[in-house]
Amino acid sequence: MHIHFIQHVAFEYPGSMVDWAADNNFSTSYTKVFEAVEFPALQSFDMLVILGGPMGVYEEETLPWITAEKTFIQQAIGAGKKVFGICLGTQLIASVLGAKVYPHTAKEIGWWPVQKVAGHPLTNLLPEEFTTFHWHGDTYDLPTGAECLFSSAVCNQQGFVYGRNVAGLQFHMEVKEDLLNGMTEHERSELTGQGYVQSEATINNYIPTEVPKQTTYQKAVLDAFLLL
After folding, report:
1. Cα–Cα distance between 50 and 211 in angstroms, integer?
2. Residue 118 has pLDDT above 90, yes or no
Protein backbone atom coordinates (compact mmCIF):
# COMPACT_ATOMS: atom_id res chain seq x y z
CA MET A 1 0.00 0.00 0.00
CA HIS A 2 1.35 3.41 -0.98
CA ILE A 3 -0.18 6.55 0.54
CA HIS A 4 0.26 9.98 -0.99
CA PHE A 5 -0.31 13.02 1.24
CA ILE A 6 -1.22 16.50 0.06
CA GLN A 7 0.11 18.97 2.63
CA HIS A 8 -0.98 22.61 2.40
CA VAL A 9 1.19 24.31 5.05
CA ALA A 10 4.40 23.27 6.75
CA PHE A 11 2.92 23.23 10.27
CA GLU A 12 0.06 20.83 9.45
CA TYR A 13 1.74 17.53 8.69
CA PRO A 14 -0.04 14.13 8.87
CA GLY A 15 0.62 13.67 12.57
CA SER A 16 -0.13 10.18 13.85
CA MET A 17 -1.10 9.06 10.35
CA VAL A 18 2.62 8.77 9.69
CA ASP A 19 2.92 6.33 12.60
CA TRP A 20 -0.14 4.38 11.39
CA ALA A 21 1.44 4.03 7.93
CA ALA A 22 4.77 2.89 9.39
CA ASP A 23 3.08 0.37 11.69
CA ASN A 24 1.40 -1.16 8.64
CA ASN A 25 4.55 -1.05 6.47
CA PHE A 26 2.86 1.35 4.04
CA SER A 27 5.11 3.57 1.93
CA THR A 28 4.40 7.31 1.72
CA SER A 29 5.04 10.32 -0.48
CA TYR A 30 4.05 13.98 -0.42
CA THR A 31 2.88 16.89 -2.48
CA LYS A 32 3.70 19.99 -0.44
CA VAL A 33 1.86 22.75 -2.26
CA PHE A 34 3.70 25.43 -0.25
CA GLU A 35 6.89 24.23 -1.97
CA ALA A 36 5.75 22.98 -5.39
CA VAL A 37 2.40 22.12 -6.93
CA GLU A 38 3.33 18.80 -8.47
CA PHE A 39 0.94 15.85 -8.28
CA PRO A 40 1.99 12.24 -8.92
CA ALA A 41 0.75 9.86 -11.59
CA LEU A 42 -2.44 8.14 -10.49
CA GLN A 43 -0.89 4.70 -10.86
CA SER A 44 1.86 5.58 -8.37
CA PHE A 45 -0.31 5.47 -5.22
CA ASP A 46 -3.19 3.50 -3.69
CA MET A 47 -4.57 6.02 -1.21
CA LEU A 48 -4.70 9.81 -1.29
CA VAL A 49 -4.87 11.76 1.99
CA ILE A 50 -5.64 15.49 1.80
CA LEU A 51 -4.62 17.38 4.92
CA GLY A 52 -5.88 20.58 6.54
CA GLY A 53 -4.85 24.21 6.28
CA PRO A 54 -6.00 27.73 7.17
CA MET A 55 -7.09 28.68 3.65
CA GLY A 56 -10.57 28.33 2.15
CA VAL A 57 -11.69 26.12 -0.73
CA TYR A 58 -13.18 29.22 -2.40
CA GLU A 59 -9.89 31.20 -2.50
CA GLU A 60 -8.98 30.07 -6.00
CA GLU A 61 -8.32 33.58 -7.32
CA THR A 62 -5.54 34.21 -4.81
CA LEU A 63 -4.43 30.57 -4.50
CA PRO A 64 -4.55 29.12 -8.02
CA TRP A 65 -3.13 25.77 -6.89
CA ILE A 66 -6.54 25.03 -5.37
CA THR A 67 -7.99 24.59 -8.87
CA ALA A 68 -5.21 22.18 -9.82
CA GLU A 69 -5.64 20.25 -6.60
CA LYS A 70 -9.39 19.91 -7.09
CA THR A 71 -8.79 18.50 -10.56
CA PHE A 72 -6.31 15.99 -9.16
CA ILE A 73 -8.70 14.92 -6.39
CA GLN A 74 -11.46 14.45 -8.94
CA GLN A 75 -9.16 12.28 -11.06
CA ALA A 76 -8.17 10.17 -8.04
CA ILE A 77 -11.83 9.61 -7.12
CA GLY A 78 -12.66 8.72 -10.71
CA ALA A 79 -9.79 6.23 -10.78
CA GLY A 80 -11.22 4.42 -7.76
CA LYS A 81 -8.41 5.40 -5.39
CA LYS A 82 -9.03 5.54 -1.67
CA VAL A 83 -9.41 9.26 -0.96
CA PHE A 84 -9.46 10.54 2.63
CA GLY A 85 -9.74 14.16 3.74
CA ILE A 86 -9.07 16.01 6.98
CA CYS A 87 -10.65 19.43 7.65
CA LEU A 88 -9.73 21.49 4.54
CA GLY A 89 -9.17 18.18 2.77
CA THR A 90 -12.75 17.16 3.49
CA GLN A 91 -14.01 20.52 2.25
CA LEU A 92 -12.02 20.10 -0.97
CA ILE A 93 -13.55 16.66 -1.50
CA ALA A 94 -17.04 18.03 -0.84
CA SER A 95 -16.44 20.77 -3.40
CA VAL A 96 -15.19 18.28 -5.98
CA LEU A 97 -18.36 16.23 -5.40
CA GLY A 98 -20.47 19.29 -6.21
CA ALA A 99 -21.30 20.56 -2.72
CA LYS A 100 -21.09 24.16 -1.54
CA VAL A 101 -18.31 25.12 0.91
CA TYR A 102 -18.64 28.41 2.79
CA PRO A 103 -17.80 30.29 6.02
CA HIS A 104 -19.81 28.96 8.95
CA THR A 105 -21.70 31.18 11.38
CA ALA A 106 -19.29 30.18 14.16
CA LYS A 107 -15.73 28.93 14.39
CA GLU A 108 -15.07 25.68 16.23
CA ILE A 109 -11.56 25.50 17.65
CA GLY A 110 -10.37 23.26 20.46
CA TRP A 111 -11.47 20.03 22.11
CA TRP A 112 -15.22 19.61 21.50
CA PRO A 113 -17.49 16.54 21.37
CA VAL A 114 -18.92 15.03 18.21
CA GLN A 115 -21.78 12.55 17.92
CA LYS A 116 -22.19 9.66 15.53
CA VAL A 117 -25.11 10.33 13.17
CA ALA A 118 -25.80 6.77 12.01
CA GLY A 119 -24.26 3.34 12.19
CA HIS A 120 -21.58 2.71 9.57
CA PRO A 121 -18.59 0.33 9.30
CA LEU A 122 -16.22 3.31 9.58
CA THR A 123 -17.59 4.28 12.98
CA ASN A 124 -18.57 0.94 14.55
CA LEU A 125 -15.59 0.89 16.92
CA LEU A 126 -16.08 4.48 18.10
CA PRO A 127 -18.24 5.61 21.02
CA GLU A 128 -21.55 7.30 20.28
CA GLU A 129 -20.02 10.58 21.46
CA PHE A 130 -16.37 11.49 21.94
CA THR A 131 -14.20 14.57 22.32
CA THR A 132 -11.88 15.40 19.45
CA PHE A 133 -9.83 18.34 18.19
CA HIS A 134 -11.30 20.98 15.86
CA TRP A 135 -9.89 23.97 14.02
CA HIS A 136 -12.29 25.19 11.38
CA GLY A 137 -14.35 28.22 10.45
CA ASP A 138 -15.84 26.86 7.23
CA THR A 139 -18.47 24.23 6.64
CA TYR A 140 -19.99 22.44 3.65
CA ASP A 141 -23.25 21.03 2.41
CA LEU A 142 -23.41 17.25 2.35
CA PRO A 143 -22.60 16.10 -1.20
CA THR A 144 -25.37 14.33 -3.08
CA GLY A 145 -25.04 10.60 -2.52
CA ALA A 146 -22.83 10.98 0.57
CA GLU A 147 -23.70 9.79 4.08
CA CYS A 148 -23.08 12.04 7.08
CA LEU A 149 -21.04 10.29 9.79
CA PHE A 150 -20.71 12.86 12.58
CA SER A 151 -22.27 16.04 13.88
CA SER A 152 -21.61 18.50 16.70
CA ALA A 153 -23.51 21.18 18.59
CA VAL A 154 -22.11 23.95 16.42
CA CYS A 155 -21.63 22.19 13.07
CA ASN A 156 -23.96 19.62 11.50
CA GLN A 157 -21.40 18.39 8.97
CA GLN A 158 -18.45 16.79 10.75
CA GLY A 159 -17.59 14.03 8.32
CA PHE A 160 -19.00 11.89 5.55
CA VAL A 161 -18.45 8.80 3.44
CA TYR A 162 -19.12 8.66 -0.28
CA GLY A 163 -19.35 5.23 -1.83
CA ARG A 164 -16.64 2.76 -0.86
CA ASN A 165 -13.55 4.81 -1.60
CA VAL A 166 -14.10 8.39 -0.39
CA ALA A 167 -14.36 9.72 3.18
CA GLY A 168 -13.54 12.84 5.13
CA LEU A 169 -13.48 14.17 8.67
CA GLN A 170 -13.91 17.83 9.56
CA PHE A 171 -11.96 17.35 12.80
CA HIS A 172 -8.35 16.39 13.53
CA MET A 173 -7.88 12.91 14.98
CA GLU A 174 -4.33 12.90 13.59
CA VAL A 175 -3.17 15.36 16.27
CA LYS A 176 0.08 14.87 18.14
CA GLU A 177 1.53 17.32 20.65
CA ASP A 178 4.01 18.82 18.19
CA LEU A 179 1.29 19.18 15.54
CA LEU A 180 -0.94 21.03 18.01
CA ASN A 181 1.97 23.24 19.03
CA GLY A 182 2.61 24.14 15.40
CA MET A 183 -1.03 24.99 14.77
CA THR A 184 -1.31 27.19 17.86
CA GLU A 185 2.00 28.92 17.13
CA HIS A 186 0.96 29.92 13.61
CA GLU A 187 -2.72 30.62 14.28
CA ARG A 188 -2.63 31.85 17.88
CA SER A 189 -4.59 35.02 17.04
CA GLU A 190 -7.75 32.94 16.59
CA LEU A 191 -7.68 31.51 20.12
CA THR A 192 -10.04 34.00 21.73
CA GLY A 193 -11.51 31.73 24.39
CA GLN A 194 -15.00 32.85 23.41
CA GLY A 195 -17.97 30.83 22.13
CA TYR A 196 -16.77 27.57 20.59
CA VAL A 197 -13.17 28.80 20.42
CA GLN A 198 -11.05 27.68 23.35
CA SER A 199 -8.02 29.45 24.76
CA GLU A 200 -4.53 28.08 24.19
CA ALA A 201 -4.30 27.08 27.86
CA THR A 202 -7.52 25.08 27.64
CA ILE A 203 -6.34 23.32 24.48
CA ASN A 204 -2.99 22.40 26.04
CA ASN A 205 -4.60 21.07 29.22
CA TYR A 206 -6.41 18.41 27.19
CA ILE A 207 -3.28 17.10 25.47
CA PRO A 208 -2.16 14.42 27.99
CA THR A 209 -5.54 12.67 28.13
CA GLU A 210 -7.03 13.25 24.67
CA VAL A 211 -4.15 12.83 22.22
CA PRO A 212 -3.71 9.07 22.93
CA LYS A 213 -7.45 8.55 22.39
CA GLN A 214 -7.29 10.33 19.05
CA THR A 215 -4.62 7.93 17.79
CA THR A 216 -6.77 4.94 18.80
CA TYR A 217 -9.93 6.38 17.22
CA GLN A 218 -8.15 7.36 14.02
CA LYS A 219 -6.58 3.91 13.62
CA ALA A 220 -10.03 2.32 13.95
CA VAL A 221 -11.46 4.58 11.25
CA LEU A 222 -8.53 4.19 8.84
CA ASP A 223 -8.33 0.42 9.24
CA ALA A 224 -12.08 0.17 8.55
CA PHE A 225 -11.77 2.52 5.56
CA LEU A 226 -9.22 0.24 3.92
CA LEU A 227 -11.69 -2.66 4.21
CA LEU A 228 -14.64 -0.89 2.57
Report:
1. 21
2. no
